Amino acid sequence: MSDSIAQAIKTPFYQYHVDAGARMVEFAGYIMPIQYTGITAEHNAVRDNVGLFDLSHMGEFDVRGADALAFLQKTTTNNVAALQPGQIQYNCMTYPDGGIVDDLLVYCLGENAYLLVVNASNLQKDFDWLSGHLTGDVKLTNSSYGIGLLAIQGPNAVKVMRELTDYDLDAMAYYTHATAKVGGVEVLFSRTGYTGEDGFEIYIPNEQCPALWKAVSSAGANHGMELIGLGARDTLRLEMKMALYGNDIDQTTSPVEAGLSWIVDFDKEFIGKDVLVQQKADKPRRRLVCLEMEGRVVPRHGFEIYDGDAVVGQVTSGTFSPSLQIPVALGYVARAQARTGTALEVMVRNKKFPAVVVKPPFYKNASHK
Amino acid sequence: MNVPGDLKYTKEHEWVKVEGAVATIGITDWAQGELGDIVFVELPDVGAEVEQMGPFGTIEAVKAVSELFSPVSGTVTETNTALEDDPMVVNRDPYGDGWMIKIDLADASQLEQLLDASGYKTLTDEA
């Protein structure tokens, strides 16, 4: 066992993964299951039926106080004022130069009360960034270490949830949350996910995690639910063109370049606005596009994208798509090459392979898009 | 983990089985487990010359790519074309249907430089 794994944090569900035979890896300071039976089988289980993910590494911040809304309006790009209690919004934070601090979910818990869900790899950076911009009556709390997070994802996720709660799931829209008894435990849960499929994410106080794991596992067993590792989480999100921080977006890329203008409210004031407004007006010089390839080579992060002899961009994420059975990639290319249908090439081990720009997402039959 | 006693192994996790002058080569159970789901195996053409511990191909898994190294020198006489359509057979049966190439063994004495099953098992126990 390497030192990094030895020092990594165990989630409240660690022992269940080990007992299930998971391959454990260090990720963002946590020891996490990368796979149980295999990425392809786990991926297909989520696309076709239902799977269970431990996402306890994700970060949770609580933001409250009379100026909480004003604080989030200033530090994020999307219009938080549009959120009603019970609603959730995809959002991001940008630096003054328009680069992305992190992408996140904003849960509106009530008036001037919010839960932010951030990437594990950015947890400390985000907390420091937000702390540095606190003004007025705002209390920012990092509650990440006291919360376990389970995600139930797939077209049959609702069948598993129905066994766990009396809450009216039929009336629960995508990107909303509720607090109710799930598996006998009062929890905050939402109809959200990172797979493209219908699904739920459940935020559980650490001490209740064993009880909820047992309840969810038992309900899932009636529906053939499988355990899903981070490997399949990556292929599932990639097929939907959902950006991964550190791969597809980071401090050097802007939401406009990443195709995330839909989470930027250009009418409100926020950090980085001037640059983003300018980029939108000038059209960004590069864009994040979807590339489909043929055969069975696998494009990977950092591989160069060519138009003829000219390098026009780099792959940011790539995999062999389990659903489509073709190689797929995300990458930034110059604006001239970003048009759908553009024929490009990706260099794989000193050989160029054809790639064509396609409309997102790669996988078009997901139960939620 | 499965480490058959009748094979020889490299430190790079390939195995070789010698029957007469024919050496059959593949990757170990440990290697397929580390790689995870295999999506592509790029193999040399029949007739190609390979050198002991020289690269003979590439293996792509969903998460990672790895080079393949030949345990012995010789001429490639056959490649496993079934891997083109179903590369995951390497995951399911690494020592059987998941074989990769057969070569005409140039120098049987090269086998002495390889690990036996217990030596290979020790190597993976330490990994």
- Note the gap between the termini of chain A: 39 Å
- How many H/I helices of chain A? 9
Residue share in helices of chain B? 10-25%
The name of the CATH superfamily of chain B reads: RNA polymerase II/Efflux pump adaptor protein, barrel-sandwich hybrid domain
Q: And the CATH topology of one domain in chain A?
A: Gyrase A, domain 2
Oligomerization state of this entry? heterodimer
What is the second-level CATH architecture of one domain in chain A?
A: 2-Layer Sandwich
Query: Largest sheet of chain B, if any?
Result: 6 strands, antiparallel
Low-confidence stretches of chain B: none
In which order are the strands of the major sheet of chain B placed? Answer: 1-2-3-9-8-5
Helix content of chain A: 10-25%
Overall number of strands of chain B: 9
CATH topology label of chain B: OB fold (Dihydrolipoamide Acetyltransferase, E2P)
- Could you name the CATH class of one domain in chain A? Alpha Beta
Question: Would you give an account of this structure?
Answer:
- The complex is a heterodimer of chains A (369) and B (127).
- Chain A has 369 residues and is an alpha+beta fold.
- Among the domains of chain A are: 3-56 and 145-238, Probable tRNA modification gtpase trme, domain 1 (Gyrase A, domain 2); 285-359, Beta Barrel (Elongation Factor Tu (Ef-tu), domain 3).
- Chain A has nine helices and 20 strands.
- Chain A has helices at 3-7, 14-19, 39-48, 68-75, 123-131, 157-164, 209-221, 230-239, 273-282, and strands spanning 9-10, 23-27, 30-35, 51-54, 59-64, 88-94, 100-110, 113-118, 139-142, 147-153, 177-182, 185-190, 199-205, 226-227, 286-293, 304-307, 310-320, 327-334, 343-348, 351-358.
- In chain A, the strands form four sheets. Chain A has a six-stranded mixed beta sheet with strand order 11-12-13-10-4-14.
- Chain A is globular and about 60 Å long.
- The mean pLDDT of chain A is 96.
- Chain B has 127 residues and is of the alpha+beta class.
- Chain B has one domain: Beta Barrel (OB fold (Dihydrolipoamide Acetyltransferase, E2P)), CATH 2.40.50.100.
- Chain B has helices at 29-35, 82-85, 89-92, 117-126, and strands at residues 8-9, 14-19, 22-27, 38-42, 49-50, 55-61, 65-69, 74-79, 101-105.
- The longest helix of chain B is centred in the last third of the chain and has 10 residues, at 117-126.
- Chain B is globular, with a radius of gyration of 13 Å.
- The model of chain B has no long low-confidence stretch (mean pLDDT 95).
- The A-B interface holds A 23, 34-35, 38-41, 231, 235, 295-298, 300, 319-320, 322, 349 and B 33, 36-37, 39-40, 58, 60, 62-63, 65, 87-88, 91.
